[in-house]
Amino acid sequence: APLVIVVPARGADPRHDYAAWVEHAARGGAAVAVVDAGAAASADRSAAAAASAVAALVADGVAVDGSHAVYAGHAEGAAVAAALAATWFDRRLPAPRGLVALMPRGGAGAVQPGMLARLPRDTRFLLVAADAGPAVDDAADIALWDGTAHLPAAWRNRLVVETDAHGVPPLVADWRLPFTAGPHGAVDALDWYGPWKWLDALTACGYRNADCRYAFGGTPEQTGLGVWADGRPVTPARLAAPRRPVRFDAWLPIAGQGVVRPRR
Question: Beta strand 156-161 with 68-74: parallel, antiparallel or unpaired?
Answer without folding.
Answer: unpaired
